[in-house]
Amino acid sequence: MTDLGLYIHIPFCRSRCAYCGFYSIGRKPDAPFLKALAKEMEMRSPAFQDYLCDTIYLGGGTPSSLSENQLAEVMDNIRRRFHISDHPEITMEMNPCDMTDSYLRHARALGINRISIGVESHDNRLLRTIGRLHTASEAEKAVKRAWDLGFRNISVDLMYELPGQSVMDFRKSLLWAVHLPITHVSVYSLILEEGTRFAQLADRGKLPRPTEEESWAMYQDMCRILPHYGFERYEISSFARKGYRSRHNRKYWELSDYLGLGPAASSRIGRTRFTISPGVRMYEKDLLTGSAPAEEIEKLTEKDEMEEYCFLHLRMKEGIPLDDFEHRYGHPLSFWYGRQVAMLKKQKLLTEEDRHLFLTYHGAALGNYVFEQFLRDE
């Protein structure tokens, strides 16, 4: 059987964060949505009977907005419709506000064995600025509660380059996080996504951002502090204790097959990528009247895939495996990108070792610039 990553998008939030560009709406999941999601599983699963789901990821939105009974219904439908491996990684994103003893016990009993918590910052002022509803104390208690109840694979998200955030604010968040009982940290710089409140404020010149020097200092702190406390940087934004890298996220970076279900979820099977249209009500209407949900389908050319292969692999610590690239595309990387690679090596942004091409420390800091060099003009 072929391995498959399964992603379930739960597009509901108590409120919308000022920075979030993911599709979500501000209400709780209801029966029509759960019925539509079950119908989509029923509709899509026959095409995946030769696949084995070794990772499952409930993302959002806020998956923990599902009630205990609703979560049980989703997990039951997944197990009825898809083949699940004997030792799957099953991740669920959670909001600290939802992580009661009862909810965590229930999730663990349903097979959830990895949780990802949107902590974002240790600074309550910054949490209010970005629209988070929890405090740092509540987040800390939620993480410790999950550990006490038996979760041994816990990831937290942190953010930097936030409006009004100082270098010391971010350093305190890092030092606070590494002393929590966690196994993984995802660190994201603020990206101004179109349509978000922060993007609108920035357009009006009303969003104070850290200076370039402050941003660089935050980046250096991230690269220094997390490894010092045992978190290896294995991808540009991802740090893990030994044995706790995200198996599901690696599928995205390695161009493996994954199936996304729910409004706005994306899938990639071979060289076909398809994304379900956002819009909960339209999603429900389509599926509950017997139609497939509206989606956008893209067939990747070899050129498209080659570009993605390069910059997604470069996101990872191991970089581009040169022998695998040549086997996959019939020519060595230098055939397509010799000039670009030579230039990036000269700039000390790329280096090569043991037939792998990977980002240097400074290359990782300038990742987007490096990735752009692998877009081919034809």
From TrEMBL:
SUPFAM superfamilies: Radical SAM enzymes (SSF102114)
GO MF term list: 4 iron, 4 sulfur cluster binding; coproporphyrinogen oxidase activity; metal ion binding
Gene3D superfamilies referenced in this protein's UniProt entry, alphabetically: Aldolase class I (3.20.20.70)
Residue stretches making up the Radical SAM core domain: 1-232
PROSITE patterns listed in its UniProt record: RADICAL_SAM (PS51918)
Keywords: 4Fe-4S, Chaperone, Cytoplasm, Heme, Iron, Iron-sulfur, Metal-binding, S-adenosyl-L-methionine
Primary location class: cytoplasm
Localization terms from the record: Cytoplasm
Cellular compartments per GO CC: cytoplasm
Transmembrane domains' residue ranges: none
GO BP: any one term: porphyrin-containing compound biosynthetic process
Family according to the record: Belongs to the anaerobic coproporphyrinogen-III oxidase family. HemW subfamily.
General function of this protein: Probably acts as a heme chaperone, transferring heme to an unknown acceptor. Binds one molecule of heme per monomer, possibly covalently. Binds 1 [4Fe-4S] cluster. The cluster is coordinated with 3 cysteines and an exchangeable S-adenosyl-L-methionine.
Designated name of the protein: Heme chaperone HemW
Organism per entry: Dialister succinatiphilus YIT 11850
Top-level taxonomy: Bacteria, Bacillati, Bacillota, Negativicutes, Veillonellales
